[in-house]
Specification:
Rossmann fold; 37% helix; alpha/beta; nine-stranded mixed β-sheet
């Protein structure tokens, strides 16, 4: 039995202190902010591999449809890059009238909820129902019942997009995750998993723009945990997202990623050298943004909620430059790593008005 371990973490923390956040937000005017924003967005596209992504025809394909009392769940498939296909649900309110357009919400998922199934409220599969109960993850179903058109995609490596190495040919396949396998391979090729995920969501927005029942001027993004990660990156890099709700994903990189076990989707080559989470979120300014944090969320890192507040304060600096401090809110609730959503409905109502 080992009584002492000779680890590398302290060295990495020292390296972080010496080299991190070279492109941190320091703008004192809107002009300086816009210049900084362009530079940081280009850096994020480069290090994440988004600039390497190859576009292609979306080739949308209808797969199936289920009708419920208050909404229709339509399953679709699009090609996001050559040979890469993304299945997703479109949740459509049944009370839509012919020719009507509705605001749209993208609802990316995190881990542990069966990909798009847990977000769309698929309770017919016991293992997915357990995930829904654990994380309160059916926010896609909640939003379609409020009258929004909701898109629930499977991210790469999860749900129907899990790689063969992750499949056991049993019910556990619904929870299979290939994030680390994909992340390691992608990094070796100069790409990253979050870059792939963000690209796929950008292509989903491209598809939304082709649909005559969607109001493409009103596209919001809402996500928990890994879905919060995807919401953060998509909103930071795609101006077509006009409102963002990030739940269970905000922390200082130093206190979280260097101290806790995290999925490979969190790691982007060179990211720490340039920015922290608060800087990435600052790219969303001045568009409406809510950050939701459970005060007992163990994934917030060693600093806990204090670390989240520190990063939110960085983001607030960007909103202050635009005199739009009322467009960012940090909601801290009594709870753990779950989708709380207390502020969600009013937030969306104000956004769509």
């Amino acid at each position: 039995m080992y009584t002492k371990r000779y680890t590398t973490r302290e060295h990495l923390l020292d390296v972080y202190d010496k080299h991190a956040r070279k492109m941190k937000l320091e703008a004192t005017s809107i002009q300086e902010f816009n210049k900084w924003k362009v530079s940081v967005q280009e850096t994020l596209r480069e290090i994440s591999g988004i600039n390497m992504m190859e576009s292609c025809d979306l080739s949308p394909e209808f797969l199936s449809e289920e009708v419920y009392d208050d909404h229709i769940k339509r399953k679709m498939l699009i090609q996001t890059t050559p040979k890469v296909w993304m299945p997703f649900y479109i949740l459509i309110p049944k009370d839509m009238e012919e020719g009507e357009k509705r605001p749209v919400v993208l609802a990316p998922h995190g881990h542990g909820c069966g990909g798009k199934e847990g977000i769309a409220g698929n309770c017919n599969i016991p293992i997915i129902q357990k995930g829904i109960e654990k994380y309160d993850s059916e926010y896609g179903l909640t939003m379609v019942r409020e009258g929004y058109i909701v898109f629930c995609p499977d991210a790469r490596g999860t749900g129907e997009r899990a790689e063969d190495v992750s499949i056991k040919n049993n019910e556990e396949d619904y929870m299979a995750c290939s994030c680390n396998d994909l992340s390691f391979a992608a990094i070796s090729l100069g790409q990253s998993l979050i870059g792939m995920m963000t690209w796929d969501l950008m292509r989903l927005v491209d598809y939304i723009e082709t649909l005559d029942f969607c109001d493409a001027s009103k596209i919001a993004c809402v996500g928990l945990s890994g879905g919060g990660l995807q919401t953060l990156w998509l909103s930071a890099l795609d101006e077509r997202i006009t409102a963002s709700f990030v739940s269970g994903y905000f922390y200082t990189i130093k206190s979280a990623l260097l101290h806790t076990h995290k999925c490979g989707c969190n790691f982007t080559p060179g990211l720490w050298k340039y920015v922290d989470i608060g800087d990435i979120a600052a790219l969303i300014a001045p568009r409406p943004l809510i950050i939701e944090t459970g005060d007992k969320d163990g994934l917030s890192g060693t600093m806990g909620t204090d670390g989240v507040i520190q990063q939110v304060d960085i983001t607030r600096q960007a909103y202050a430059l635009f005199n739009q401090e009322d467009q960012i809110e940090h909601h801290i609730f009594d709870g753990g790593h779950v989708f709380h959503g207390e502020k969600l409905i009013n937030f969306l109502e104000e956004w769509k008005a």
